[in-house]
Specification:
With 207 residues, the chain is mostly helical. It is built from 12 helices and no strands. 69% of the residues lie in helices and 0% in strands. The radius of gyration is 17 Å and the shape is globular. The chain starts with a helix and ends in a 5-residue tail after the last helix.
């Protein structure tokens, strides 16, 4: 398959080292406290319908202290200042998520699938994609993050027949199965495949 060949080429380049470093960074979250997990949850709330770089800029400015303690007005001003389109909604979602600020403790003992279900059910502004993104960023490597870059690449390589207009749970899980099969063919974890595919479309390895 052409896509797997392209990924194998990346494995022989300097990108492999960058991807490994990013995966190690995600794995390190098992030793990090609740407030850093909560900061990552807020980052993933911000990534929905926005660019990752915008969410990264907001996270850098606020830090876990800001996400936990800033007033609604301060949250809105920061999000707006960083040119995020949905500053009011995002600030509200972050503010409401504070009741689950001990998110690491809440998810302890749950599987990745159970954790994703809990997040989608309980955190406003979080769907399957954002929940999978958060869990990957805190060290769960077995869930697919079906963002536009990954879906476009799957479509271009005829792994899916069409790009869904909206990702319902049903079609998310159906496409995720195909993504998981691709990871097995490429002989890598789902998280590693995601970063490789993201690089192929976006030209960078973010988070």
């Amino acid at each position: 398959m052409k896509l797997i060949n392209e990924i194998k080429k990346l494995e022989k380049s300097n990108i492999k080292k960058k991807i490994k470093s990013r995966l190690n960074e995600f794995s390190s979250f098992k030793n990090k406290p609740n407030d850093e997990w909560f900061s990552e949850l807020c980052f993933c709330i911000l990534t929905a319908n926005s660019k990752a770089r915008t969410a990264i800029a907001i996270q850098k400015e606020l830090g876990h202290e800001g996400f936990l303690h800033h007033s609604m007005k301060e949250l809105i001003e920061c999000i707006k200042r960083n040119k995020h389109r949905f500053h009011n909604n995002k600030a509200r979602f972050i503010h409401e998520a504070r009741k689950y600020q001990k998110i690491k403790d809440i998810l302890r003992g749950k599987s990745s699938v159970e954790s994703r279900e809990w997040l989608v059910k309980n955190i406003k502004g979080i769907g399957c994609k954002e929940a999978s993104h958060f869990l990957r960023n805190v060290g769960y490597f077995d869930l697919a993050i079906l963002d536009r870059h990954v879906l476009n690449l799957m479509l271009e390589n005829k792994i899916i027949k069409e790009k869904p207009k909206s990702l319902t749970k049903k079609n998310y899980f159906e496409i995720e199965e195909k993504f998981n099969s691709l990871a097995k063919k490429a002989n890598m974890s789902i998280a590693e495949l995601d970063l490789n595919m993201w690089y192929l479309k976006a030209g960078d390895v973010l988070k």
